[in-house]
Amino acid sequence: MKGKLLKMRGLKLFVSIALTIMTMLTLAIPAFAEGPANNNADTPQTVSVPVILDGVLYQPDEFNVIHAELHSKGIYLISMINPKDQAFYCFTSTERYNEYAKTQDLPVITHPPMGERVGKVIKDTDGNVTILAPDSANSYSTGSSESALDTPSTRTCLSCPSPISGYAQNYEHISCGGDLLTVQYNASVPSLVPYNWNDKISSAIGLDTALDWVEILYEHINYGGDQFLVYETITISNLGNYGWNDRASSIIVNFIV
Fold first, then answer.
1. Residue 201 lies in a domain
2. Per-residue pLDDT tens for 136-184?
3. How far apart are CA 155 and CA 166, in angstroms?
4. Which of 56, 169, 179, 194 is most buried, by CB atoms within 10 Å?
5. What is the rounded distance in angstroms from the CA atom of residue 44 to the CA atom of residue 192?
6. CA proximity to 96, closest of 61, 42, 56, 46
7. Tell me, what's the pLDDT at 193?
8. The CATH number of the domain where 109 resides is what?
9. pLDDT for 26 beyond 50
10. 191 and 98: one domain?
């Protein structure tokens, strides 16, 4: 009789432990599966185009798995579209990016991001914002420092405008639609939150200059996470193709050579 009681107690303990483990697994699985669908989670968006990562070509599905794994380990990518072949490139370090950039006569990154360099900020009632550098009186732009505001207040067309001399253009929607965020060269914006532009950029246009200026979009505030380089005169009508829709939280427009 005593032996039967011990067996029953052992069986109850086993069942109790098994139920506890199953409950824990049930709670954990949804959190793992939901990651990529949430733009606010610290999980990279997926791409829909082939990617050359550190010199190796990957199809979108292959790259998305690799990117998620790298991101989870705190390895953040520098991404860009080469103006020469229009291919999408990613690099796991500044050193690897610079090695490739030198072979293509592209700007190299030689210094860390600056703090905040924000001068006058111009807003209109439609949600458009222009951020000027502190020294905007010496603007490279051939027009006035506020010439970027000459563009329509809210764009609904399905084509992107021409680059602006001395300014990078960022749009709320794909194909340069919706509200416009214009950032002057030599400006550094560690957080887009105060301007209501956090995780809001869907298309971008590089500066029109004769120098090696580049706009750098950062995944997180204070220039953290992945980076996306928008070279001069480059137009990216849909950042979502490259995993960057509504993803930028800080910006630098800088001379990075």
1. yes
2. 644 444 333 344 444 434 444 457 899 888 899 999 999 999 999 999 9
3. 20
4. 169
5. 19
6. 56
7. 97
8. 2.60.20.10
9. no
10. yes
Closest CA to 195 of 134, 150, 130: 130
- Name the DSSP class of 113: -
Q: pLDDT value at position 25?
A: 42
- Euclidean distance between CA atoms 18 and 147, whole angstroms: 68
Global pTM reads 0.77
What's residue 135's pLDDT? 76
1: pLDDT confidence band, cut at 50, 70 and 90? low
Residue 44 lies in a domain: no
What does the block give as tokens for 47? 């791409």
6 and 67 in a single domain? The answer is no
- Average model confidence (pLDDT) for the chain? 81
For residue 194, the SS3 value is helix
Tokens of 202: 């869907």
Residue span of the structural domain in which 98 resides? 51-255
**Does residue 28 belong to any structural domain of this protein?**
yes
Name the residue with tokens 């051939």. Answer: 142
Question: Distance (Å, rounded) from C-alpha 141 to C-alpha 165?
Answer: 5
Q: Is the residue at 199 inside a domain?
A: yes
Task: Quickly tell me which residue has 């399905």 as its tokens.
Answer: 158
Whether 210 has a pLDDT exceeding 80, the answer reads no
